[in-house]
Specification:
Elements (H helix, E strand, L loop, with lengths): L4 H12 L10 H10 L10 E9 L2 E9 L6 E7 L13 H11 L2 E5 L11 H15 L6 E11 L1 H15 L7 E5 L20 H11 L25 E8 L3 H13 L4 E10 L9 H15 L4 H13 L1
Parallel strand pairs: 3-4, 3-5, 5-6, 6-7, 7-8
Antiparallel strand pairs: 1-2, 2-4
Amino acid sequence: MTLEPDAQAVLDEYAKLNMPPLSSLDIETLRAGSRAAVQIPGPDVSHVEDRVAPGPRGDIPVRVYRDGDNPGGGLIVYLHGGGFAMGGLDMYDPICRHLAAGSGYSLVSVDYRLAPEHPYPAPGEDAYAATCWAAEHAVELGAQADRLIVMGDSAGGSLALVVCLMARDRKGPAVAQQISVYGTTEMVVSNPELDGVGLLSAADCEWFWDLYVPDHPRREEPYCSPLRAKSLAGLPPAFVLTAEYDPTRDATERYAHRLAAEGVLTTLKRYPGSFHGFFSMPALNQGRRSLDDVLRVLRGVAGPAHAARESAGREAG
């Protein structure tokens, strides 16, 4: 196993910063540092608007992106990463612009509540509420409600899986596609042999999880650890992306294999030579490849009713 040269170069530059372990920092210091980090801007899009969606404990800030006039296109709900404790609309603005510009779909980026101030299940409940709002306002947002995609990376990738479980269990909204980019599926380090390689260590995982779910028995709940769900049947088609160097890689891949085994149309792709976090770095080779792969999946998404008709036609044929 070898990191790609450009990925190794990122890690070499990061090492020069001589950053202390995350667990030695307070969360506000970490958040301030992430907000101050220099980002490569995303592409221009024709429409960007900050709005609010009603949530279980008050309004949830969301940012709506749309590039051009494409009525009837898909609608992406994007859930950002950050260990359930950091991240936000501005930090994920570049990747949301790439997705909106590349797909032609409307996109709603969700600023869900963060731990430790708002531990589990608050982030997931906000993500679900914002998804319901997006589905209800799809036409207003320039999209079709039956082409709803729920997507996220890292913590947001986990929340995307959770939202789809909630939507199935709570009878809506109908989700046409779920996309999870190295989303945690259980609060366990499944690849300790990869510790120390990449931007995310096993200790970092444990630190974030302690902030998010301090009540350890609740980590067994499926809306916290989707891998613990008794059944995955009836979930929407899934595209699951993983990084080769990720201490939670195998747990995520087990979830994808379970989806497929339980009848969910699933594509699993591991990106070799990459580390946790690469998707939001389109300057990296694997960042560009994964973005292109996601855009191909997005362009092929059909509404659930259309997909069911096509499936029935294939079976009849």
